[in-house]
Amino acid sequence: MPTNTTTDIRRPDVRHDVSLITDDDVHLFNEGTHFDLQTKLGAHLCAAADGAEGACFAVWAPNARSVAISGEFNGWNQRSHALRPRGSSGIWEGFIPGVGQGTLYKYHIVARDSGYEVDKADPFGVFHEVAPKTASIVWDLDYGWSDEEWMSARASRNRLDAPLSIYEVHLGAWRRVAEDGNRSLSYRELAPQLAEHVQQCGFTHVEFLPVMEHPFFGSWGYQTTGYFAPTSRYGTPQDFKYLVDYLHQHGIGVILDWVPSHFPSDEHGLAYFDGTHLFEHADPRQGFHPDWNSYIFNYGRNEVRSFLLSNALFWLDEYHIDGLRVDAVASMLYLDYSRKEGEWIPNKYGGRENLEAIDFLRTFNTTIYQRRPDVQTIAEESTAWPMVSRPTYVGGLGFGLKWDMGWMHDTLRYMSHEPIHRKFHHDRLSFRMIYAFNENFTLPLSHDEVVHGKGSLLGKMPGDDWQKFANLRLLYGYMYGMPGKKLLFMGGEFGQPGEWQHDGSLQWDLAKQLPHSAVQRWLSTLNRFYSGEKALHEWDCDPAGFEWIDANDSEESVVSFLRKAKTSDDLIAVVCNFTPVPRPNYRIGVPRGGYWREILNSDAVEHGGSGQGNLGGVEASPIGYHGRPCSLNLTLPPLGAVFLKSDAAQPKAGE
């Protein structure tokens, strides 16, 4: 870890003639509308008017009696370098000459009334020691980006009518170096390997589980202490920028999981910061999460809003991030989330809705899209809260997309049934389309479904080995046929058989072996067709792009539907057979005649299937069926999904 090697405890005391903070900054911060706090608070290398070089420090601790900087530059003396309060703003600041890049430091805070003393990491620190150490590091974020081409065009990559196929990744467990103590790859080691794999699989974006600094590796990053710092476990801030830059240069977008819903109770973190519940609610009925043993932000406090909004924009601006997936939105929206009667406080109207969190989320989304209209915000929201991904001006929360948790649970529950029983659960396939366009949905098969005893996706599939893999390919085919953006957690692309373990690597030894390699070929094919066929993505979020052909064939456990493009005559029929029984002479109605090419078949031999299908395509017959003027007589492969594209050159029936 780079550090300042000088530890001269005789360095000059704190100077107060240098400040990065203006009166306007103080006003906006206290008002809750300062969105660039990271340029003012924290530690910043700077110079005084007389040319003295050092670092400006500033921290918010309104209940403190005193705040001092202790670090390696003063032998970790907790009294020698005291900061001075900035009026009544609650901010303490000072300039320390001689402090340079790599200097370790902490804030030593003494509370005003209780005498409580504590050493805190910098809430605005951009770099921290590797856990379990807790000091912050003075660091400059300068970096020479090379992703101009991506940044200038990314609006077209992130639009709702663009293909978004997201590969969800935990950086520390994607691939490890067994011969070097099973260590995780560094950011720079990850860059070429991850980019190559993502390109090979055809994903458009990666989504990283939280990279923000966190003390407990087993939290996967969801217990954040350093909101402004990528974890130092894998390298420096510049190393993480290199990873993002490299992915952008290879045409891959980057989404980060962001956790404004709760933070851990570790002493060096945000909790009880200045001897009071500064960032969190004091009342545990509002300020403490019983599920996660973590604190809840006080969204009604202006300075906390400034902190969180500045943090969101920081990742978009400083690290060129293309989207933020907001974790645990439901826990923010409901005051009684995971609480029993009497364990929560109603809002001023007597309801269970968290009015302050709702207002914060609306402000968050409005601010993000005003300042960065070419990115996406994505809500992980698990309830039926209305208009999560609708604009704030019509009463929505303002997110761009929302995870469809209902689809995930219904589909995986359906797929877990033995095929002979699936006809009794057919509504789990059809129900989704009742609400499918109430929100702009992403279809997630995420990390949450392959941990804590739930088994892998492959492990959820019934039957013998051949049927398990066929079911998995069918699941992916059905997913990519359905309207909605796509998300798949790492390991799913090659059918990892074991449940995900955060302290190990993916089972890469299997990825190149049949039938796992065949699953990856199928997923790669799906991704490329999803991106290349407008009918499969342009109207992902609009009912005009979808029609059922037949949603009710529960007896045969078959669903069939049409996907349509926005600006062309492209038309694709998707038919899924959820039983291991081949179905020859299966007829579906279609709206036009001509030749329908079989463009995808999950049962193709190269994908590990039995090779049953329609010999390249089918000519439509002028036989009305399913209320349509023409029909196709198909062979449905066992546990198979087939996609058939209409030859657009052919006239529609009746023309």
Q: Which helices and strands appear, and what pairs or packs with what?
A:
Layout lengths: L22 H9 L10 E6 L5 E8 L3 E8 L12 E2 L5 E7 L6 E8 L5 E4 L15 E2 L10 H11 L6 E5 L6 E2 L5 E2 L2 H15 L3 E4 L3 E2 L12 E5 L6 H13 L3 E6 L25 H4 E2 L4 E2 L6 H17 L4 E4 L2 H5 L21 H17 L4 E4 L21 E3 L1 H12 L10 H4 L1 H4 L5 E5 L11 H4 L4 H17 L3 E5 L18 H4 L4 H17 L13 E8 L4 E7 L6 E7 L5 E8 L4 E7 L15 E3 L10 E7 L3 E7 L9
Helix pairs in contact: 1-6, 3-4, 6-8, 13-15
Short note summarizing the structure:
This protein has 655 residues and is of the alpha/beta class. It has 15 helices and 30 strands.
Describe the model.
With 655 residues, the chain is of the alpha/beta class. It has a domain at 23-137: Immunoglobulin-like. The chain is 23% helix and 23% strand. The chain is built from 15 helices and 30 strands. The strands form eight sheets. An eight-stranded parallel β-barrel has the order 9-12-15-18-19-20-21-22, surrounded by five helices. The chain has a six-stranded antiparallel β-sheet with strand order 23-24-25-30-27-28. A hairpin with a 4-residue loop joins strand 23 (546-553) and strand 24 (558-564).
In CATH, the architecture of the domain at 23-137 is Sandwich
How would a crystallographer describe the biggest sheet? Answer: 8 strands, parallel, barrel
Strand content: 15-25%
CATH class of the domain at 23-137: Mainly Beta
Major beta sheet, strand line-up: 9-12-15-18-19-20-21-22
CATH H-level superfamily title of the domain at 23-137? Immunoglobulins
Q: How many whole angstroms does the radius of gyration measure?
A: 27 Å
* Number of strand elements: 30
Could you name the CATH topology of the domain at 23-137?
Answer: Immunoglobulin-like
Q: Report helical residue fraction.
A: 10-25%
Distance between the termini: 72 Å
